[in-house]
Amino acid sequence: MRILILLVGWCLLLVLCWPLALLTLILTPLIWLISLPIRLVMVCVESVFALIRAILFLPARLLGFRSHRACPSQRTAS
Length: 78
What we know:
Layout: H1 2-16, H2 18-62
Helix pairs in contact: 1-2
């Protein structure tokens, strides 16, 4: 559905302002290529934060604490 909306939007832009539509057609892959290293850095940062969180919560997990979000099947009806 998202691709269809983008295609209709691009066709509408092509009818209204064709130079801008062609410019977006050329620049979109370039912007995607430029954003790849930024995405890679964000994945690495999220991984480091997940590791730090796992290390910080390790003592609680070893003592038997379980989050309600982690085990929805163990919830009791009130």
